[in-house]
Amino acid sequence: MKTILKQVTILNPEQKLNQKNDLLIEDGIIIRIGNLKESDFKSAEVLDFENKYCVPGLFDMHVHLREPGREDEETIVTGSNAAAAGGFTGIACMPNTNPDIDSAEIVRFIKEKAKNHLVDVYPVAAATLSRKGEALSPMFELFEAGAVAFSDDGVAIKNAEMLRNVLEYSKNFGTPVIEHCEDESMADGVMNEGFISTSLGLPGIPNVAEDLIVMRDIMLSEFTGGKVHIAHISSKNSVELVRQAKKRGINVTAEVAPHHFTLTDESLKSYNTNYKMNPPLRSRADVDAIVAGLKDGTIDCIASDHAPHAIEEKEMEFIYAPNGIIGLETQFGLVMSELVNKKHLSLSQAIEKLSINPRKILNLPVPEIKEGETANLTIIDPDLIWTVDIAKFKSKAKNSPFDKRLLTGKSVAVINNKKIYYESKFRSI
Amino acid sequence: MDIKAKIIDEEGLNRTLTRLAHEILEKNKGSKNLVLIGMRTRGEFIAERIKQKITEIDKSEPNYGVLDITLYRDDFRTRLKQPEISVTNITIDLNDRDIILIDDVLYTGRTVRAALDALMDLGRPNSIQLCVLIDRGHRELPIKADFIGKNIPTSINEEVRVKIKETDGEDSVYLVNAPTKN
Amino acid sequence: MSLSNRHLLGLNGVPIEDIQLILDTATTFREVLERPIKKVPTLQGKTIVNLFFEDSTRTRISFELAQKRLSADTVNSTSSSSVKKGETFKDTVRNIEAMKVDMIIVRHKSAGVPQYLTRISKANIINAGDGLHEHPTQGLLDMYSIKERLGRLEGLNVCIVGDVAHSRVALSNIYGLKTMGAKVSVCAPATMIPMGIESLGVKIYTNIDEAIKRNDVLNILRIQLERNAGTRIPSLREYHNYFGITSERIEKNNKEILILHPGPINRGVEISSEVADGPYQVILDQVTNGVAVRMAVLYLLGTMH
């Protein structure tokens, strides 16, 4: 079966590609790139993608899939569907499931469940058993089964000594340690600490709770030579710490979630639990620092921290409601609307942070757009204006603060594993 | 205000109040056990005037208080505007007293009903007598005044407006056409 | 005259006219409370639910008395959070709503619950304390008590002393008093002063003598042992020695000062017994005024169209 992507602009900063061509795909393989002849079009399905971009498939390295354990909130399949709808061909899923991803069986279970999907699912395994920070997880076994990184996400690795061991042990296979940076003793709050939390009467979490652990992790990375990846960075000082660490050649990378460059703690004035997340939404100054960090490369990539929760759980009183929002299906639109259209990032830089850098951090091959390669592609329309509608989400969960928000830029199709997701349907290609 | 007629002028009002003071004294055999209670807002000033008259005639000042009946109204659910509330000022014990309840106009009787309830919550008087400047008819409750300044039969489309110097700058009573309700 | 909002969620943003109206109306009810029969029929036929998810004997009794004295039908529910029962909060409230209630008085450990109720219920909502946020009727009764004693609020210097960071009374006082033209300050060890409070236009004292000297009124907050005060002050003894209000301190610094305390009092901690029972305080007046102010709020909301 042949498919032609007609007059699409091929953009891959990694290959220095930015050209308008036809692209012929057969059995999931890129057969030809160039200007095709009339005769070629007759025997193939033609998708006219004029004014659209074809980029290496997007990758979200921070997703919570909830399976095993809370399949009522999200499953590996529904989460993967949401990823495809959001423009992603690959995701990394975090280990705070029930049970935690701390045994090879669970890694294999996830790989098995994800096997026939368009979207590739790469498990991130727990760094310590049950993410308790007391004993190392069987990292060799986990790596061999397919884990691409280690993390106690939900919390930081409990103490410095344990983190040191995790970093040293993981040097054996070069995987990064993904850290949720938050000092446990200062993390009792439910929102950013500051004037807004004071005026709302909600207990706060100060920026410094994040900064302390970012600093600890950077220093231990330097000390051990291990690879630290700072998840969902949210504070101004943390961005500066990462910037300085990189200057000194320390092996540290960082990601940010779209809500942390889009929203501030002002949003909590409505007490809407869809604005409750951890790290919390910070101040305007923090948002500005994050945008600056994205621009100068301090922040390597953008990841959603997609965190599905059941409606009944989010509808609790504010202090009892769980943290987190879903983000797979709004992420690309927010990057375009908040960063590219506001000229903070070029489209190429956005693709680096959404496709190329996350794969490099996880030591995964970056898809190439060239003849003979497997087609792992996302087709994006940077100018499409659309309204977020949670009712149409592929995710099982609906906990998004972005419902009814007008966004510019959307993925229109994804292609991977001999499948295409286009016009809300999966089929073979 | 769409005036149809001036019913009582300043001099007339003064004479009427003097007569009412005499009638009250006569019926109650003096002012010793009396408590004059004026109903906010105009009844308050009429009561004040009657108090002065009684003081002149009887050479002793009768007890006096002001009653606000807002909390006892029966029309909270139907009124369009929230009524303004003000303070009841009755400092003496009402038990076993003869109370003269004083208001400007007696109409449906509902205000008087509310006032009776309010007074009962303040004590157990010996008697309560009702004194009004104008009785315009159209009663909705079985209530009758003991002392009446003037009976003025009115139609339902008319209203009686009592003006008192203390609040309105003049002493007089007018018959007016009721403002049309939209 | 009517209030501009059909709920009382807090004093933040409540216009001066509304506060004035509530305080004026409370005067009427203060008179009713002096009568042999302290009851008027005003709210006959209205159903009010006191929804207390966090226990508070005093506030609940005060509200309940206010309701009974206005002849409303009242029901009390003192339950812990719905989370423990596995029912969502929304379902709990929807159930109560289905029983056709006119007004809900709510106290909850989580800030924002009263605001949330206004989105899912048609009843008038009165906040009786939400988390560390607001306790508007307490703020109103404090203002009423100050005004009753000093004749005004405008231009007064009022200092809130104690664990401001863990108080719902402090914010309501700050918002209300500032609207009424008073100057508000706080005085406490820095561990008890919440971040950014100066952005509300509040001066910070860390020396209690200074605070007594420069203010007309002190509103003394309870040191809440149950709220983990231990990590923010070394001991009650030390707090008392450096921030406790004693007659020596008052006599040394300012004999004209007026002392308020929302209760319950920790004698010998934030306030000495001598002061708590002495000539400077209006602590029991506050309790009486609390019923009058709550009657005023219930009346104004309950008879609104």
Q: What does this entry look like structurally?
A:
The complex is a heterotrimer of chains A (about 425), B (about 180) and C (about 300). Chain A is of the alpha/beta class. Chain A folds into two domains: about 1-55 and about 375-429, Urease, subunit C, domain 1 (Roll), CATH 2.30.40.10; about 55-360, TIM Barrel, CATH 3.20.20. Chain A contains 13 helices and 19 strands. Chain A has helices spanning about 40, 75-85, 105-115, 140-145, 160-170, 195-200, 205-225, 235-245, 260, 285-295, 310-315, 330-340, 345-360, and strands spanning about 1-10, 15-25, 30-35, 45-50, 55, 60-65, 90-95, 120-125, 150, 175-180, 190, 205, 230, 250-255, 300, 375-385, 405-415, 420, 425-429. Chain A starts with a strand and ends with a strand. The mean pLDDT of chain A is about 95. The two termini of chain B are about 15 Å apart. A five-stranded parallel sheet of chain B has the order 3-2-4-5-6. A three-stranded antiparallel sheet of chain B has the order 1-8-7. The radius of gyration of chain B is 16 Å and the shape is globular. With about 180 residues, chain B is α/β, with parallel strands linked by helices. In chain B, helix 1 packs across helix 2. Chain C has a five-stranded parallel sheet. In chain C, strands 2-1-3-4 form a four-stranded parallel sheet, sandwiched between helices. The model of chain C has no long low-confidence stretch (mean pLDDT about 90). Chains in contact: A-C, B-C. The interface between A and C is medium-sized, with 22 and 27 residues.
